[in-house]
Each structure stands twice: as C-alpha cells, then as structure tokens.
C-alpha cells in the first residue's frame, strides 16, 4: 500500500529518467526535443501531485464541499506548460533552421560537417 | 505616484516595449525606441538603488495583493545593484547596436531583433527584481528563450547548433530549478523568498529540503556556467551576433551568480549550505578548476571571440570562489567582480565585434598589425585585457584583491595562490592577443582597414573607461557590494 | 609638504616626454629633443627633491585609494632619492648615447623606442618614489611591461623568444610570489606603508616572517637572485642603450632597490637580524656573487659577460641588505650608485664597439684598443672601477660591505667579497689584454675608427662619473647614511 500511495512520484521519476535518456542518447535533434518534453512533463506531474489534497475536490467553491485541492500548483504548472511549449517551439524552429543549413538533423552528421 | 511603482516599471517597461518594436517595422526606429527605453530603465534602476540603499529594502506588491498571497518584488542592496548593472550595460551598449545589427541581421528582421532583445532584458531584470521563487523560474525561461533566439541569429551556421545545444542544457537547468522550487513549496507552502527564508532553516535537514537544495544549486550552476557545466557557453558566445555576445557575456552569467547568492544565502542560509552541507568545499574546488581550466583553454584558442568566451569560464570561477568563501569579504569580492567583469568583458566583446565589423573575422591571425590600423579599438582590447588579468588601476584588480584577501582571512592560502596563478594565465592569453596585434606585421598587400565607427567606439570606450574608473574609485562599487554582502550573510 | 608638486612633476616629466615622442612621430629629430628635454627636466626636479631630502624634509603625497585604506602614495626618502638621482642623471647621458646609436645603427621603430624608454623611466621613478609597497609593486610591473617592447625591439624570432623569457620570469615571480607576499602582509598587518623600523616587526610570528622573506626575495625577480636570473642575459638581445640604462641601471636597480626597501622598511633591519631564518639570504646572495662571476668567465659574447657580471654585482646589494647591519645597508645602497656608473660605462663601450666595428664577441676584440683608444680607455676605467680598485667609486661600496660583514663577524662573507673582486679581475682583464696586447702582435697600420661623437661623449661622461664618485663620495654617503638607523 505504502508504495502505491507514491505511485505518482514513481511514475514521475520514471518519466524524467526516460526523458533524460531520450535527450542524451539519440543523435536525432527532434528526438532530443521529445525527450526534453517528457522530462518537463514529469516535473509537471510532481507539482500536480503535490497539489492534491486527500479527499479534496476541484477547487471551485461550492457549498456542498469543504475540502478542496490546492489550486496554486495547477496555476504554476499552467505557466510552466506555456514555457515548455514555447521552448519546444523555439527548439523545433531551430531544428528546421539547422536542417536548412546543414541538410540534416542528425547530430553526428552535423558534427562531421562542422569539423570539415 | 509613479515613484512608488518603480520596481514593477523596471520589469514591465521592456516587456511592453518589446511588442511595440514589432509594430515599428523599421530596424532604425526600433533601435531608437529601444535606446530610449534602455536609458529610461537605467534611470529607474539608479533611483531604485538609491532608495534601497537609503531607506532599506523596498517591497512592492503586485496588483496590491499582500505577500505571501500576492507576488512581491523585493529590492535590497543586492538585487538593486544587479538591476543597475543590467540596465546600465544595456544602455551603454545601445549606441553600438545600430551599426553592428545592421551589418549582421537581415533588414526585415532587425525590428524583431530588438523585440527579442527587450524580452531577454525583461527576463534578466525580472529575475533580479522579483521576490518570488516561481517568478524567478518564469523570468529565467523568458530570458533563456529570448537568448536562444538571439544566439541563433549569428551569421555562421554553427550559431544554430550552438543555440540548440544551449537550449537543451539550459532547459534542463531551468527544469531542475523548477523541481527544486516544487520541493520547497511542498514543504513550506510558500513561494515568497522572504517567507522561505524564515521557514526553510526551521525545517532543517529533511530529505525534501536536501533534494530541493541539490536541484536548485545544480540548476543554477548550469545557468551560471560554472565548471563542469560550462560546455554550452563557449560556442554560444563565440557564434552569436557581436552585440548579443557582448550583452550576454556582461549580464547573463551575472544573473546566474545573483540567483546562486539569493538561493544559497537568503533561502537556505549560509549555516545550512556551508555548515550542514559541504557546499564550500564543492564550490571552491569547482571554481578553482574553472579558473585554471577556463584560462588554460583560453590560452589555446585561435579566435578572439572564443578566447574571450573561455576566459569568461575562468572569470566565472572567480565569482564562484568569492561565493564559496562565504565570508563578507569573499562575497564582496564576488559582487564587485560581477560588476567589474560585466564592464570589462562587455567592452572586450564589443571590441571583438568591432573588429569583426571591419575585418569580417576575429582569428588571431587576422589581427596581425591591427594595433596600427585600428588603434582605438585595439587600445580598448589591451586595457580590457589587462583588467581580466587583474592589473592594478583596472577594476579587475579590485575584485581579485578582495577575493585573495577573503581567502587569506579564511586561512585558505592555496586558494589565494590559485587566484594569482589564474591571473598569470590570463596574462599569457591577453599577451597573445597583444602580440598578434602589436608585434606582428600586417599582411602585405592586404586591404586597408578603417577604424570602427564612432558610435561603436562610444560604447566600447564607455565600458572600458568604466572599468578603469571603478578601478580607481572603488568607494562606490565596494561600498555597495560590502553592504549587499552584509545583507546576504545576515550581518547587521 | 611643499615639495609634493615637485614629486608629481618628476613623475609627470617622463610621461610627458613619452607623449611628446608619440605626438612627434613624423619628426624624428624632435623626438630626440623631446627625450632629452624630458630627461633634463626630470633630473632637475630630482636634484631639487634630493636636496630637500638631505635637508631633512620628507615630501609625500597620496593620490587615491585603490582599495579603501590603501592609497597610491608617494613618499621620498634617502634611498629613493639616491635611486632617482642615478636613474635620471644616467637617462640624460643615455639619451645622448641613444641618439648616436639609433642613427648609426639605423634602428627602426624610433617612436616606440623613445616612448617606451621614457615610460620605463617614469616607472623607475615611480618605484623610487613609492610611498607604500603596493605603489611600488604597481610601478615595478609597469617597468616590466614598458621595457618588454624594448627587449623585443629587433622583432626577430630570437628577440621574441628572449622577450617571452623576460616577461615570463619577471611577471610570474612578481605575481605569484611578490604580490602574494604583499597581500599576505596586508591581511596580517593592515598597512603596506614604508615605515622606519619595519611594519612586520612584532606584528607577525617568526615563522610567517620567514616565509614572507622567501616570498619577497624571490618575488623581486628584478634583483636577479639565483636561480631566477636567466631573464637578464636573455634581455641582452635589446639594443645596447637599453641594456645599458635599463638592464644595468633602471630595471635591475629597481629590483635591488626594492629588496633594500623591503628589508629596511617592511621587515626592519633589527627584525631581519634577529630572525632565525634569514641566514639563507646571505648564503644565496654570496652564492650568486660567486657562481655568476664564474659563468661570466666563460661568456664570449661581450654583452652576456657584462650581464652575468651584473647578476653577480646585484647580489652585492642584496647581501648588503641581508647582513642587516648599518654598514651593510649603506654599502648596498652605495653599490647601487657605484655599480650603475661602472656598468653603464662598460655597456656604452660594448655598444660603441658594435657600432664602429660590428664586433660582439670578446674573441674578436684583438687590438681593438688601437682602433678605438678612447672607447677602450673608458672601458678600462669601468672595468677597474667594478673590480674595486682606486681611484674608482666601487671601492667605497665594497669597503662598506666588507665592513658590514666584519660587524657581523662573518668571515666567509668577507672571503666571498674579496674573492669575487678577484673573479671580476679575471673576467675583465683578459678583455683589456686582448684589446691592448693582441696575441698576434701589434697591428701594423691601425686606423682610428671611433663611434660617432654622441656615443663617445656619453661614454666619457659615464666613465668620469665613476671616478668622480671616488673623489667625492661625501654627498652620496650623507644621502644614504640615515638608512643605517642611527641618525
């Protein structure tokens, strides 16, 4: 049971690690960005989990309920998602520009061209 | 009326000005507008510093909401000082921007360039001004995203890969900071830095706080580009447009240093970071390696901009040394160095950009005989370079003096020795530049080279003259830095 | 107090000279004139200042704080006045010499040459006038940097390599050891002022002081204490007037001057004398005297032989300070003056020989005394003077040094001093012998072929100076006597 209550955290850690791996291992620039997205998503998951109050409902005031989840982490993560999306957009735009300049999105090929 | 809203104006002004630049449609107009905005911000920063030093910390409530519910901008001597550095650098560099940008950026993109530049500035100013931990993250990402774009605008295609590399590393760094802030929030229920400063030390050594400390420190060190997290920096600075290299070299890492100071000293507190945890040992050893490795790497560069970039890696090490000493003298040294290095390195990168403007290259071999052909620009390089070495009379000396003094006070004389060794290596790489420019004959039959345009000279010399002025008149910088350091370390 | 403007004017004179030279880039004759005018103005100012010092005045002026509590300040005391007098007087002589030398040898880059020369002199005067250790360090480094372009003047690969050795030795020792020691002193004592009796005495533990002494003595690389002497022979690739004024007088004397300053005003003579770990300095200085002389014996290049001789003679001054007795310090201080005149004469002669006969090696000098009798006459004066024979000045300084060693009853040191005079004779006399009594008999028809008149005139003035100091040592003695402590 103990392990199950923390399942969200475990999932977040697993996601983060997969994301990091996906940033480091592939040579493809687009795949790296996918990894970056996963890594950031994992962090969002942690925040959302922190905001959850046991037995609480969605933070919309209603006389029928008196326990609400903490809305602040949601708000924060909304901002962070915007940031993450922007990062992804800039990253993809850069990738497009790199593809135009080098004719490839494979890091190995790019390195080779730079060495020449 | 307006005076009471200065803290938010400091950040909001460039944010509002950025889209206006898009509407202006013309590079020249956008430049003029940005210049006005930057000088306005400098005036605001000066007023704020005056207020913060005179009447003590300024607290500004965004939208009138009282902290900790609302977001607070809190300005003490430390961040008011950083704001002044940021706004001052931007204002002094604007005269340079017009011609440099006109040459390096395509005409239809110039107004957008200024828009992104203002956004970057917003982010940096925001980090310094805010009193809210999550806000720091948001502003950090604003400045980072803008800087990825600016760096990618460099003329060579390697600017793109450099920017991409920076984007990946930078985002990881910022995400780590985000996790750390999340842990802090989960433990304390607040994001206000002043609140955190009260609650975190009371919690002591719980695993969540330790994890938060680790995540935030590593994240900030990535942004600061302290060894071994510096790998993104040399390429990013070397291939970015000249104006961008100069601006970020002068400001971005300084904000990183500020974040480190703020989190380590204010939020976690020196006893926790340096007593419970071995941050001192870690930071000092990393910093000394940075000083040596960065300076040595600079010694073997064949391109002036790359040389300066690696020199920055070394100079960031000095900041780390000062922070790692965790004494008033050491932190004073670090803060003074933040200021002085901004002037010197900014001026040097501007000069390197002026050389690129006239020659189209910054290879050391292209510099041969340049001492005669671009006498003023090269003179600026020499003076700025001597500042990096820490030659007395330049401001670089003052900061190193405090660092060494701080090391002696702590009984860490090997640290003092390493700082001096770093100076010596710096002398060697500056010497290489001087030798190339003054002791090598210009290539035969080369095209004549004219001195850089006067507007660019103006910016270069404003920075370089500042670096000498503050080497001679230390009361201002050292005075402010000493009080700021005392605030950080919690001394009365 | 009233002399503060003169103090600043004396510093400004060579700087103004450098700027004038730079401004007159198109008119080489004006550059010569500007250098000469600056030199004469400087000498005049220094003489008036020295007179004030002898009258018991102590001109001082503080400019600005470099860090709070640590000003860039100037204060004149006897030793500084002495050094400034010598440097500024010999600058006049050397400028005359330079005019002849640069014209005759068609040295290029005249603007850089004269401007750097003036800048080097400004730095040397700054060293002489420095009011605290920090100011001294500042000008010490400025001196290194301003002489670098002069060392690499010819621009050949050899010159550039020598320049790197020069900078490498001087900067690394001064930054790593000297500056380190200065900072340490500052943290320990909280002041860097030169004070009679020293600032370290009683303020730091014996062990710290011993370590500081090592740092200072080897940190002052310009004193060319072995094993940190290699930069001096390397610097001989410079044009001869540079070697003459800078590497026999201004630069190296700045080094030993700094050594004396540190020993007298930072440590305090009594402190040095009472310190357990100070004998090594006497030993190192003695060893340098002997070893450098032995190396000089084996040098065929005339300028290199002179350079090693300089290394040896500089150690005399260090030895004088290390003895930490009144006689020793007075002897050391006097040796700064007497060696300056003697050695500059010899360098002038070497340059004259190079200019007129294009010879650089001792082995080529057979019969040169008949071709260039005036030059070699001056050479004889300089050589005999350095050996320590009457009627030449170095006799007095050696006399005092032996006296100082005797005071401390250090018999081996007396032996070193006397033995080294013998060695001096061994490396100078063969040159004279070759010049006047060539192995292959006298040349049949030796045509006279002297160097141009400015060179000759300067050489003669320097030679006369070494004789004059023998007959009138009184002024010199009066000036340096206060160093001994007893008024």
Strand content of chain B: under 5%
Question: What is the string of SSEs of chain A from the N terminus onward?
Answer: HHHHH
Structural class of chain A: mainly alpha
Counting helices, strands and paired strands, the structural category of chain B is mainly alpha
Helical run tally of chain A = 5
Strand content of chain A: under 5%
Which percent range fits the helix content of chain B? over 70%
Main sheet makeup of chain A:
none
Which protein chains make the most extensive interface, counting residues with beta carbons within 8 Å of the other chain's beta carbons? A-B, 29 and 24 residues
Strands ordered across the widest β-sheet of chain B: 1-2
Low-confidence stretches of chain B: none
- CA-atom Rg of chain B in angstroms: 21 Å
- Extended strand count of chain A: 0
Domain module count of chain A: 1
CATH architecture call of chain A: Orthogonal Bundle
CATH topology of chain A: Helix Hairpins
Please state the overall shape of chain B, judged from the principal axes of the Cα atoms: globular
Level of helix content of chain A? over 70%
Task: Average the pLDDT over all residues of chain A and give the rounded result.
Answer: 87
**Model regions low in confidence, pLDDT < 50 over at least 5 residues of chain A:** none
Number of helices of chain B: 20
Concise summary:
Chain B is an all-alpha fold and 492 residues long. Chain B has 20 helices and two strands. By secondary structure, chain C is mainly alpha-helical.
Structure in words:
Chain A has 116 residues and is mainly α. Chain A is built from five helices and no strands. Chain A has helices spanning 2-5, 7-24, 29-51, 71-102, 107-115. The model of chain A has no long low-confidence stretch (mean pLDDT 87). In chain B, helix 4 (110-129) packs antiparallel against helix 5 (133-152) and helix 16 packs antiparallel against helix 18 (413-438). Helices cover 79% and strands 2% of the residues of chain B. Chain B has 492 residues and is mostly helical. Chain B is built from 20 helices and two strands. Chain B has a domain at 278-492. The two termini of chain B are 32 Å apart. Chain C is mainly α and 487 residues long. Chain C has one domain (4-484). Chain C contains 19 helices and two strands. Chain C has a two-stranded antiparallel ribbon. In chain C, strand 1 (60-67) and strand 2 (70-75) form a beta hairpin. The A-B interface holds A 20, 23, 29, 32, 36, 39-40, 43, 46-47, 50, 72-73, 76, 79-80, 83, 86-87, 90-91, 94-95, 97-98, 101-102, 110, 114 and B 134, 137-138, 141, 145, 148-149, 152, 157-158, 160-161, 163-164, 167-168, 171-172, 175, 178-179, 182, 185-186.
């Amino acid at each position: 049971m103990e392990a199950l209550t923390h399942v969200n955290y475990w999932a977040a850690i697993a996601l983060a690690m997969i994301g990091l791996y996906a940033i480091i291992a592939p040579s493809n620039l687009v795949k790296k960005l996918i990894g970056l997205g996963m890594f950031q998503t994992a962090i969002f998951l942690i925040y959302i989990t922190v905001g959850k109050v046991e037995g609480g409902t969605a933070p919309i005031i209603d006389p029928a309920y008196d326990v609400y989840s903490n809305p602040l982490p949601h708000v924060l993560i909304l901002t962070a998602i915007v940031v993450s999306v922007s990062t992804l957009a800039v990253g993809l735009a850069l990738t497009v520009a790199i593809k135009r300049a080098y004719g490839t999105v494979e890091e190995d090929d790019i390195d080779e061209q730079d060495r020449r | 009326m307006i005076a009471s809203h200065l803290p938010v104006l400091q950040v909001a002004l460039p944010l509002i000005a950025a889209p206006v630049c898009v509407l202006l449609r013309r590079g020249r107009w956008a430049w003029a507008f940005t210049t006005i905005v930057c000088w306005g911000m400098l005036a605001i920063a000066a007023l704020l510093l005056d207020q913060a030093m005179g009447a003590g910390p300024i607290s500004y409530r965004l939208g009138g909401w009282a902290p900790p519910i609302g977001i607070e901008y809190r300005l003490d001597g430390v961040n008011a000082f950083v704001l002044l550095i940021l706004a001052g650098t931007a204002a002094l560099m604007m005269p340079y921007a017009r011609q440099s940008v006109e040459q390096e950026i395509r005409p239809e993109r110039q107004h957008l360039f200024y828009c992104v530049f203002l956004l970057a500035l917003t982010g940096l100013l925001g980090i310094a001004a805010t009193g809210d931990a999550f806000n720091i993250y948001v502003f950090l990402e604003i400045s980072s995203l803008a800087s990825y774009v600016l760096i990618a605008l460099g003329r060579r295609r390697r600017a793109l890969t450099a920017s991409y590399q920076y984007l990946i590393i930078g985002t990881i760094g910022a995400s780590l900071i985000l996790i750390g802030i999340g842990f802090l929030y989960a433990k304390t229920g607040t994001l206000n830095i002043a609140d955190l400063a009260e609650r975190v030390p009371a919690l002591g050594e719980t695993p969540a706080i330790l994890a938060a400390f680790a995540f935030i420190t590593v994240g900030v060190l990535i942004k600061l580009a302290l060894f071994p997290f510096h790998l993104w920096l040399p390429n990013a600075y070397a291939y970015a447009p000249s104006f961008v290299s100069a601006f970020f070299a002068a400001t971005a890492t300084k904000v990183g240093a500020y974040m480190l100071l703020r989190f380590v000293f204010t939020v976690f507190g020196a006893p926790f970071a340096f007593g419970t945890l071995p941050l001192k040992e870690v930071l000092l050893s990393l910093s000394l390696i940075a000083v040596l490795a960065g300076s040595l790497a600079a010694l073997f560069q064949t391109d002036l901009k790359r040389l300066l970039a690696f020199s920055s890696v070394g100079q960031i090490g000095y900041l780390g040394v000062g922070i790692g000493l965790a004494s008033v003298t050491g932190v004073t040294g670090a803060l003074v160095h933040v200021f002085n290095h901004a002037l010197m390195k900014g001026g040097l990168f501007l000069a390197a950009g002026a050389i690129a403007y006239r020659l189209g290259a910054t290879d050391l071999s292209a510099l041969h005989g340049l001492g005669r052909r671009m006498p003023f620009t090269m003179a600026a390089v020499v003076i700025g370079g001597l500042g990096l070495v820490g030659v007395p009379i330049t401001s670089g000396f003052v900061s190193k003096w405090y660092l060494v003094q701080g090391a002696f006070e702590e009984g860490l004389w090997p640290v003092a020795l390493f700082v001096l060794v770093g100076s010596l290596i710096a002398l060697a790489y500056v010497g290489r530049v001087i030798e190339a420019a003054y002791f090598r004959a210009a290539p035969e039959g080369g095209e004549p080279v004219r001195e850089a345009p006067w507007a660019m000279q103006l910016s270069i010399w404003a920075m370089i003259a500042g670096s000498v002025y503050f080497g001679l008149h230390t009361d201002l910088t050292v005075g402010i830095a000493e009080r700021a350091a005392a605030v950080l370390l919690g001394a009365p | 107090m009233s002399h503060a403007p003169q103090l600043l004017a004396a510093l400004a004179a060579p700087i103004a000279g450098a700027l004038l030279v730079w401004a007159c880039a198109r008119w080489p004759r004006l550059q010569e004139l500007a250098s000469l005018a600056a030199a004469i103005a400087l000498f005049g100012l220094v003489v008036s200042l020295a007179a004030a010092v002898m009258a018991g005045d102590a001109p001082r002026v503080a400019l600005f704080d470099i860090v709070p509590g640590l000003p860039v300040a100037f204060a004149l005391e006897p030793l500084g006045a002495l050094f400034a007098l010598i440097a500024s007087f010999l600058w006049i002589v050397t400028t005359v010499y330079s005019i002849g030398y640069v014209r005759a040898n068609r040295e290029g880059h005249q603007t850089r040459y004269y401007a750097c020369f003036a800048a080097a002199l400004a730095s040397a005067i700054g060293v002489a006038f420095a009011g605290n250790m920090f100011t001294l360090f500042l000008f010490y480094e400025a001196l290194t940097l301003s002489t670098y372009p002069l060392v690499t003047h010819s621009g050949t690969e050899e010159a550039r390599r020598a320049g790197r050795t020069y900078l490498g030795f001087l900067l690394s020792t001064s930054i790593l050891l000297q500056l380190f020691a200065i900072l340490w002193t500052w943290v320990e004592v909280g002041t860097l002022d030169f004070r009679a009796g020293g600032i370290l005495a009683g303020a730091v533990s014996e062990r710290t002081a011993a370590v500081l002494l090592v740092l200072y003595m080897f940190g002052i690389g310009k004193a060319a204490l072995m094993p940190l002497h290699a930069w001096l022979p390397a610097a001989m690739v410079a044009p001869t007037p540079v070697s003459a004024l800078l590497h026999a007088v201004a630069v190296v004397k700045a080094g030993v001057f700094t050594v004396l300053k540190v020993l007298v005003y930072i440590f305090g003579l009594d402190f040095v004398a009472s310190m357990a770990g100070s004998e090594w300095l006497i030993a190192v200085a003695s060893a340098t005297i002997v070893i450098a002389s032995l190396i000089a014996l084996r040098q065929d290049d005339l300028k290199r032989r002179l350079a090693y001789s300089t290394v040896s003679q500089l150690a005399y001054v260090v030895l004088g300070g290390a003895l930490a007795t009144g006689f020793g310090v007075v002897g050391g201080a006097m040796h700064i003056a007497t060696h300056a005149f003697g050695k500059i004469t010899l360098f002038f002669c070497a340059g004259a020989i190079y200019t007129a006969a294009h010879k650089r090696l001792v082995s080529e000098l057979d019969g040169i005394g008949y071709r260039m009798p005036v030059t070699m006459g001056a050479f004889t004066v300089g050589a005999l003077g350095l050996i320590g024979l009457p009627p030449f000045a170095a006799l007095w300084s050696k006399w005092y040094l032996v006296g100082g060693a005797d005071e401390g009853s250090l018999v081996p040191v007396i032996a070193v001093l006397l033995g080294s005079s013998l060695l001096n004779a061994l490396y100078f006399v063969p040159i004279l012998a070759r010049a006047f009594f060539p192995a292959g008999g006298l040349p049949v028809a030796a045509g006279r072929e002297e160097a141009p008149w400015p060179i000759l005139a300067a050489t003669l003035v320097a030679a006369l100076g070494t004789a004059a100091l023998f007959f009138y040592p009184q002024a010199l003695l009066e000036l340096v006597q206060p160093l001994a402590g007893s008024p």
